[in-house]
Amino acid sequence: MPSSSIDVHAIQNVRCLVVGAGGFIGTALCETLQTYGAQVYGFGREPRFPSVFEDINFIKGDFLAPSCLKEATKNIDVVFHLISTTLPASSNKRKLFDVESNLLGTIKLLECCLDNDVKKVVFISSGGTVYGSCNASSIDESQPTNPICSYGIVKLAIEKYLSLFHHLHGLDYAVLRVSNPFGPFQIAQNNQGIIATIFSRAITNQPFTVWGDGTIIRDYIYIYDVVDAMVRAALYSGSYQLFNVGSNLGRSILNLIQEIQLITDKNIDIHFEAGRSVDIPRNVLANDLICQELGWLPAVDFSDGLQKTYDWLTQRI
Known about the structure:
Blueprint: H1 8-11, E1 15-19, H2 24-36, E2 39-44, E3 57-60, H3 66-72, E4 78-81, H4 88-91, H5 95-115, E5 120-126, H6 150-169, E6 172-178, E7 180-182, H7 194-203, E8 208-211, E9 217-218, E10 220-222, H8 223-235, E11 242-245, E12 251-252, H9 253-264, E13 270-273, E14 282-283, H10 288-294, H11 302-314
Helix pairs in contact: 2-8, 5-6, 7-9, 7-11, 9-11
């Protein structure tokens, strides 16, 4: 069943603060919210794509400075929390920094939301790391959470603190455990964003490194489908707070490379390296609950999403 359309009128004039607005997901979200007629405020470091923010209020501030957050959350209805200062692959080497910057920073943000009467917080968690190694062919929200990297542990701890603030203070929230988003505004950097990285290597005729034998399976989701889920979550008033956001389909790294080679009409030089301890064999997210409650399913076919991504990247590389 296809996704039902969003009631755009419901988001019009809603005062939305996007914390981490300058990054990949934040840029696409701000662009969409503005199109829908919301009052959009961005917060974070310098945006990567300033042209998107020409007509958006962007607050340059430090996530770890409570005074910045206190000011940014004034007169806000919905806060979208996207900031993360670490990556899954490197977080185990910086565990203390991960906790201090992401977990403590989020608690300060939630306290500011309470002080300023924010109505709802939408948090982007990690469907790829919070579950850890799982034998299920498709992971639903009831599966045990056993992350094997600090990044996933901290994401899970933030989920728990959101639940605590809801229990103690009535702060409404939604957690979206997103799989692997890709699409426009994602650029290859810091070993993050595998699809953008493979495309970049193909376009510039550079080799691509595969950790392990290339058979690990992941779930990929187009960025504007993720944004659609985020807006729906902000408007949702039902009894659930936690949703997977994924395609319910898995693809191996080698399959992904093959599909990108077909689109680019280039052979990619693959370098194989030893597998990493943070890479689980399979991670595919079931999306039955979000379909049932929010009327959401991916609207963009994976191959179409790849082509859109390639078209966008070729204009910038």
